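Response to reviewer comment R2.3. The reviewers asked that we include at least one raw input/output pair. We reproduce the pair for DNA-directed RNA polymerase here without editing.
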Amino acid sequence: MQTKKTKVRKRKKGSTIARKIHRDLTSVLGARVSYLAKEQQTVNEASQSSPVLNIEVEETNVNNTASKIDNFPFLSDNPNLSKKINYASSASKVQLFPKSDDILRIDTVNFGTLVKTQTTDTGPYFSSSNRGTFDSVNVASQNSSWLTQLSAFKLQMNSHGPDENSNTLERPIENEELDEDFTRVKNYPETTKNGVFDDSGDKLKQIVVPSPETVIFNESNNKPKPSLVASHLLTEEFNEQFLSPPSKEEMSLSEEVMVSSKEDMTSLKEVMTSSSSDPDYLSEERSSMLSPPFTHVISSSFESEFISDVAVPKEKINGLTTVDKGKESIKKKIVNKEKLLSNFNVDKKSFVEACCSVGKHRIAHNCIKYYNCYPYKLYGIDVKITDLNIYNILIHSWAKQMKTEPIEELMMFIRKDNLVPNYQTYAGYLECLGRPEVIDVASCRKILDEMEVEKLDVKELFNECTFKRDERQYILKAIQSADPSYIANSPPEPKLYEGELLSPLNDKLPPDQVIDSNPFTGVLSTDEIKERAKLQFNSELKGSITVSSIYKKPKPTDHTLDMREKLSKLREDWRNSLVKAFKNKLKYYQRKSERSRSYNIYPFLKMLTPDEYADLALQEIKHMLNYSETYSPRLSYLRKALGYKVWQHCLVKEKVRSGEIKKMERLYELYAEEYNNPDFPHINHRQCWHQILNDNLDGPNLVVEERVWPVHVKRTIGRLLYDLILQEVRMDSSIFNQKDERKLYPAFFSIYRTSNYKTFEEIKPHPDVIKLHKEAQLDDLDFNMSDMPMLVPPVPWLSLNHGGTLLSTTKLIRLPELAFNQMDRLQQLGTDQINAVLDSLNTLSACAWIINKTILDLVIDLFNTKGNIDLDIPPPVSEFPALTKYPRDFKSLSPGQKAKLHRERNQIKQKRSEMFSLWCTELYRLSIANRFRDEIFWFPHNLDFRGRTYPTPPHFNHLGSDLARSLLIFAKGKPLGEKGLDWLKIHLVNLTGFKKRCSNDERLEFANEMLDEIQDSADNPFTGNCWWQTSDEPWQTLACCIEITNAIRSSDITNYISHFPVHQDGSCNGLQHYAALGRDQSGAESVNLSPFSKPQDVYSDVAEMVESQRIKDAAEGNMTAIVLEGFVRRKVIKQTVMTTVYGVTKYGARLQIIRQLKDIPDMPQEYTSQAASYLAEKTFFCLQEMFTATKGIQEWLRTSARALAMESNQPVEWVTPLGLPIVQPYHKKSIQQQHGVQVLDNSNKHEKPNIQKQMNAFPPNFIHSLDSTHMMLTSLYCLRKGITYVSVHDCYWTHATDVPVMNKICREQFVNLHNQPILEDLSNYLIKTFLIDRSTSCPDTMNRLKEVLMNVPERGNFDLSNVLDSTYFFS
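Raw output as returned:
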């Protein structure tokens, strides 16, 4: 009998929102819970009438239902809902009428309740209190299992079910779990009495599938209805009963979808692999319970990443593209084979690593065996294991068990997959042979012979492999048993620099030309560094640190102490609940893992203990309680961030298991001795650390490939932990009043916030939890150790994942999570090409710092006494502006008056939120600074994708504000010498901004004239004349005043030990690079590339040009020009000039100028907008007139980027002069609907570039990569010269006595850099990369691209050597 052809339909968006409202009302209002489906006729009738959502509330809650609904975030804040409460004798019904179909479209649904009334031997006993239109049945039977009788509710195309992303249990319920936590099944669907019928009237058998998309079968032939096939979980029992093994043809997923009886199975697989209601959910959740071949079910995010749909016209159905062709629906797909296979292998590798880490070798082996024995195709592509490292990991794991049989089987699989064993493969086999007391010499010789056949030199084995624990000694033992004379080759020495820019660094300067052989020695003794290293190791192993807050609170009262005690007890209860719940989850996933031979989440969850997971969850709770009442992060972000933290903890724990930590502790003591060696015989710190590693080869390798977890694994673990927080973390209603009846209710709930027409899910603490936290008035702040400065010098960077902190959880390059391209380029090129970049990072990281305690104490006192906005010290919450109150006659106000009042309140709310954010920022910064007030510390550094360097601690570093910089000074001081005091004075005047166009001699003279004010500022910061407060940078000015005063009052100024850093700042550095690239004479003069007796100020020059244009237009009667008389000032257009080089648009420039004009009291505010537009236009015009070459280079870069992104469909990339590959991570954003919520899909970010962003960002990013290169070259040559050097991008710091030396090096390296053919090299690289290595099949496209890329702008006639004599190039 031929079945009918049906279509796969999508559920209505309204149903998902209905379930969300229902779920949240359940927790907040106490609404009774369950679903009853209506008959199809009734649903159709309801869909034609006015949509209404009825929510039944228990009678006990009737009296306060209205107030609760008013306080319910989703309902009270949603302008598209009106609410009406009807009171009845037994219950209250809340009717929600949608005002707009754009937000909510709901058919009439009655919500009843699912109540646990009894537990029988066969399972739970359910009943319904809602008898409305339909009868409910008691689901319990003594004749068969309760699980198979608890049937899913009727599913029609527009009916409703529980939300997949809610607290609903997404699996069959185990009997033993019900008594422990029955709340998990509160949203479980109920059944109807008369069964379910399809459209033809045939009765359908109901199968238990815990999913809203229920599988319905014809009772007569047990064939699945393709239109109703589930895309979520299926039970093994279900598969064994209804699914037969597929044929090879069926496994290939035919492009042509037919729904006839012959091809029902193919349709089933198509729907299962393409339709997913939750793309982010880990695929193993759906796949691990399936029988072969449905063990690798693919989420829609996976599909969108690797498969593009090609069809015209297009009709989107369940994420697939269809083209109607008669009665058939044909799907055409273009599959990215490389990415699909890569993703598959990354998944399997992470799974095998996790299994081996937790001792589940057999599970990993069965998984690999399964994918070898059951090959299958996805979208016509053979999916198989192609990464040899997957086999190697498992071979080493079996070797520790001394099991040769599974290793031989794995070797067979390797051959079967046409892979060639490498050094690591044979090393694993040799390890297995070397572990027994009696070694099988014949087998060892056989392995060595095989290596010879494969042309693998056994003497290079130890240089080509990485080892853990004691693997090295057993491998050596096995080799020497077969070849007693064996001696391994020595490890390779660090490579020397190459190229004109770097080759001079290979030789050290003669001693008489070096200022200090080791500028970093002497801040601590070697023994002190070793002792502090132990503390640092322990802190990093712990993962977090508690810092006392500097915020001065009143002495805690008895009530406060009582609240603290209650909060502490509550946290302990939360921890116990989380541990217990996680153990139950772990048992469940263990059972799933035992039944499955495929990829699953269980090994990842075993990496940490339940107690460790509970501690991480509690840390998240602490962080959430510190957020402001108006702010709550998106739940998707929190889940991903928590999954990332779990991954970091697992990396550290794996280092403990592998023995890396013990070896690192031992070798770091050797590094401490070299770091503190006054003679420092090495060229740089990287070579020093490299030599230490080469001299200590025993034990595990420290430079190893980082373990990578797929994004969906991190998200799934983060989701699991946050689900536990939402489900298990509960608040006690009697905590504030012991007389109240004790009730437990969720401590956290989720809300949905709409922003820019997008709806996002967020998590909020219950108001009672916030109240308890506030009344407890806790004094401690928790931080991750990666966010803190280090107590010892950072580990030198050697590779992409080895360097920075002692346990190396820091990334070398800060990249978006899914921006794979740049890391791929780095891995292809190897780290030898970027040695200079690594050495620059190591130089910046090696500088030790201390706190300027005088400034810190002043700031803390001011912070705790209501702050000072003029000095950028934010006031406390008590000083925030109060919200405007609604007047009593609010209802009588006109709509305009109401709107104005609402607008004023919103503005105040926003200002309060911004002030609170600033207050928290300073609280964190000052608390961390106070924690390290008596310490010497270091900042590890890393890069952004452009090559710019940043300290890794985010809250407190020298890249911060004026206040942050004033708190830091060098730990190592130097005598001022003859000119040091003069440089301090010049630096002081530079900070004030008073003498921008004066020479250094004039600035020095001004400082000498102001010595009385300087000393008064130092002696009486707040009670004297307060001259320092008029400065552009007041806090750094005050710190410099104190330093100068101390030096003047010392007995010997030249021998005064100064720790104060002196800055030399580039003069609009971006324009300097443009002028040098184009050899632009006029532009070079404007930005001080040419020598002058006084500094040129490009901002003032542009302001003068704009003013001359304004005078001309005013004379012609231009009203805007007339109004602007006297308001064209340097400060007004400075930001626009500065950011023009970095790609600011005219619209952005207009906004910048508006902000400046609003700060001028006399400016007529009604003309602000048109005046800003006028000034932006004139500023751009004047810049083009002044920097002609700059405009040409910018346009060429923009045109090239646009052509590359459009024609090649790939992001723009280039290589810096120091060899760092850069790929712009700007890709199209894909917004998808998930459960009625807008979700950003990042899965294809590395595939489709955003052309507009690629084009606009290329010029500024390219210039940023050049200024970073200049900074790095300066840092390397400063180290060679023996002086301390630190930078903040284009602002270079050193000791006062060494400023002339740094200035000379800075200018020399700028000239050396721009003597390179930078633009020509860029053109050649782009042609080679995009037209040769990745050539397109279209000759016309190649010719167009080549013409654009070869059209390098012509250069001017500026002599670059003039920079060497320019005093104000950096000043």
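The CA atoms of residues 661 and 860 lie 38 Å apart. The two ends are 89 Å apart (CA to CA). Further pairs are available on request from the corresponding author.
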